[in-house]
Batch of 2 targets.
Target 1
Amino acid sequence: MAKYATQALRTVALVGHGAAGKTTLAEALLHKTGAIAAPGSVEKGTTVCDYDPLEKDYQHSLASSIVNFAHRDTHIHLIDTPGYPDFLGQSLNSLAAVETAVVVINAQMGIEMVTQGMMQWARERGLCRMIVVNKIDAENVNLPTLVASIQSAFGNECLPINLPADGGKRVVDCFFNPAGTSDFSSVAAAHQALVEQVVEVDEKLMELYLEQGEISPDQLHAPFEQALRDGHLVPICFTAGRSGTGVPELLDVFAKLMPNPTEGNPPVFYKGEGSKAVEIRAVPDPQKHVLAHVFKIVIDPFVGKLAAFRVFQGTVRRDSQLFIGDGRKPFKVGHLFTLQGANHVETDACVPGDIAAVTKVDAIELDAVLHDSHDEDNIHLKPMQYPVPMHALALELKRRGDEQRLSEVLHKLAAEDPCLRIEHRGNETVISGLGDLHMRYILDKMQKQYHIEVATKPPSIPYRETVTAKAEGHHRHKKQTGGAGQFGEVYLRIEPLARGAGFEFVDQVKGGTIPTQYLPAVEKGVRDVLNAGPVGGFPMQDVRVIVYDGKHHPVDSKEVAFVSAGRRAFLDAILKARPIILEPIVKIDIQAPEASVGDIAGDISSKRGQLSGTNASIAGMMSIAGRVPLSELTNYQSRLKSVTAGQGSYAIELSHYEPVPANVQQQLASQHKHVEEEA
Ligand SMILES: Nc1nc2c(ncn2[C@@H]2O[C@H](COP(=O)(O)OP(=O)(O)O)[C@@H](O)[C@H]2O)c(=O)[nH]1
Ligand SMILES: [Mg+2]
């Protein structure tokens, strides 16, 4: 049986910007509760959570890590997440598995980019939130100012639940037993602010409070949970994870005040697809049907596929038969594990609120819902909004013959990482991720874990070609080699189509001048040109080809002859129809600090771009929208980073195609000529 009932469970994710001290804090929590004998360190590569060899190399987290420990009469499942924006995929995943997001803020750095994002994403997911100000022992920290800036960025519902004392050597409780003095503000004032914030969610309690001037902590429990659920209260705690200051107090807050799985906002599941999907709410009852969500996949070279999931309803046992999404064939759980970083510990059963894992079930994918009811349609969780991967690299194998393995390895990497995209563009394999660091990690992993060597280069720009006028084309293909000859003649007409219309092939041949059986051959010849146009060798689009006349020969006409005649007639027409090269224009959405908007706007216009507007977004940040040719955005990530001191980010999507300027066309055409001459 599960060792703890649902009400005794707590689920928290440590989120926030890189180097805030999340992994160190997780280590301190594990140590304090006796789950490990001594705390390890990120620098020495000895922590439970940063167990991956690359994490030890880089000295920071790259993937989420799952641990659990007991405190008082509760059992806590905790997910440590990576904090650098490049690894957001793994942090956002983790939000789907917990009731509480603990946003860790580095006392030295204050509010950082990921802090801001996480406060917002956690709120949008309906999670209870709590802020931990860590590194209160460090030099040059100004905690009163930091608390004020937290309140101005995220609202006055952010209230200290304890306060540093003795110059940051310990913390004093402001909620249960508010007594003593703190380094700043006052314990009594902090207590009063908390109680007043909590009673606001309950009118009766509010009246009672106004009459009596005090409410017992017991009476405050239920409204406290509601205030957390409603986002009406975000408690702030103080810690120094490395020395352990504030860690016992943080554990008490987890045990006594953070919601158990029956007290949080239940996640929204959907049953069925598209407009027919109906919402269902999971009920954290161990007796009901199973509903569990897979939030993390690890592909281990030795263990195989590991799927970590959070149980939201029902009980998962070793002998459970579970369905995956709308899959018709159930799998048997077999071995059920809880995770302690890299270690797997077998367990018998998991109830709502538990986080566990199964291994070796290849059909399970990230975001899958596991359930045990035969009649269910596809059940899925409200999808997570991930940042769009736009940092693209084209891969080139260093060794021939590795093609099949490369594709297998990329498939595995993408299975683990929701922000890694793999595409085949023409004959290029292109991988896209969230930034430099992300890509470097993926390439390192390919080399060190899978021993596959690749070189990289910027992906080619997907240019296109089209025509701008009507024209006639003609070709007579005639060859006489020895006995049998080849003969075919084609007359055609071409017309430009509206942008984005694609390609049309029209047969207007009268009187069988080209016999019906040869028309597919003509079309094949035309389509050969479509794949690589005559100006720059790019695919052609937005053109109509009308074949209207020709000639054949009863003996010498062959398919090859009409393929060739079709191809050459089309080329003939294109060159008379003022052909041009088109380039992709993308919509760009840039997030950046207000102060750098001027620089960014200047930069975008120097890149032939146009801005369509700016909007204030979260505290001090602006969002800037516009359109830019994709070819101008090579290395834009590093450029934006330098203009915004690392604070900027952007996303792009295809808007439309436009003719390239004349000089660019000339350049592309001459490059194509060189290639043709060399070939
Ligand atoms: N002074 C001080 N340094 C800390 C504290 N917690 C973590 N660090 C250091 O800050 C760096 C980043 O810590 P880490 O736990 O990897 O942060 P994460 O990226 O949020 O997981 C490491 O060098 C830690 O030793 C703390 O409470 N005080
Ligand atoms: Mg970490």
Target 2
Amino acid sequence: METKRPTVPAAEEILGGYFPVLDHGFVSLVDYMGSDEDVESAARVSYGAGTRKVSQTRGLVRYLRRHRHTTPSEMVEMKFHCAMPMFVARQWIRHRTASVNELSARYSLMPLLFYMPDVEHFQLQSRTNKQGREGGAPPEVYREAVERWERIRKQAGDTYGWLLEQDVAREIARIDLPVSTYTQWYWKIDLHNLLHFLTLRVDRRAQWEIRQFAGIIAGMVKRVAPLSYEAWVDYDLDGRPLTRGERAALSKLLEADDAGVRAREGAALSSDELKALGLSPREIRELVEKLRTPDHPDFELDLSVMRTAEDVAGEMYEAVPSSFE
Ligand SMILES: Cc1cc2nc3c(=O)[nH]c(=O)nc-3n(C[C@H](O)[C@H](O)[C@H](O)COP(=O)(O)OP(=O)(O)OC[C@H]3O[C@@H](n4cnc5c(N)ncnc54)[C@H](O)[C@@H]3O)c2cc1C
């Protein structure tokens, strides 16, 4: 009997399509295996038939995520073709629970495509976050940065081309290409680890550039496994674990029982009182942050920008050093 691979129409619509990211990058969903129903089926195996009546797919998927029962979501896999600047790739590759095949600059000619930040994201060093940026940089600094980058990249690209012309091995010729150079890879990961990646990389503490890639991937997950995506938003992305000190603080402000949750009359906590409960000044700032309404995009993909594999390959081909076309 012929068995047909189960498909998800919303995922099929984008399968093999290329979504541009930054100036020369992209993410494409090359393949996927499974969806929310596979998470449910795997969980049913472990819970047994007796739980069937409570296992409406949505309720079960949400229960699993809330209670960190994660292995059922490892049954779903997604495979991507992505191109990103090397400095983004270095952050991305730290996620060890994926399978990766990167373009070999020992074997292939590198397309000379370099990331140029746009003026909006060219910012000054953050005063509060050593790993962040804030505010606008003076336009003349941006202009000069672009000029300097263009000069360095031209020189690096020319040297790369010259070394290749001298028949120097590709693995040596490539060593001074800057980390703004685009690389590409196939990346396959299961849904559990992908959601962990997204939690860390759509977060505003992650570098803006990698966030752009994570946002597109989140939009793809939304299409492949919409119930898992929804549970991830509710329990991981917009959820926050409470520390012992934070729980102690909240229980001074609120009382809760089966009848509901009520504010304690006249209850308030100053920062000194929070400190007395064991919260450091930084933890107090983090508590304030946790209680803010989360602010993130809805990760809906814009299908009007989707390109074909041929369009993308054309751009890559044109960027290979000219004497080797
Ligand atoms: C905002 C931000 C800033 C960062 N800054 C830095 C930095 O300054 N310097 C730096 O080096 N890194 C930095 N990182 C990278 C970070 O420390 C992690 O390496 C990266 O986010 C991958 O996370 P992970 O290990 O949880 O993911 P994965 O590698 O996908 O692993 C998933 C989970 O599997 C388990 N696991 C995987 N491998 C092992 C193992 N060998 N042993 C035990 N458990 C394992 C862990 O539970 C882990 O959480 C930063 C990350 C973020 C998001």
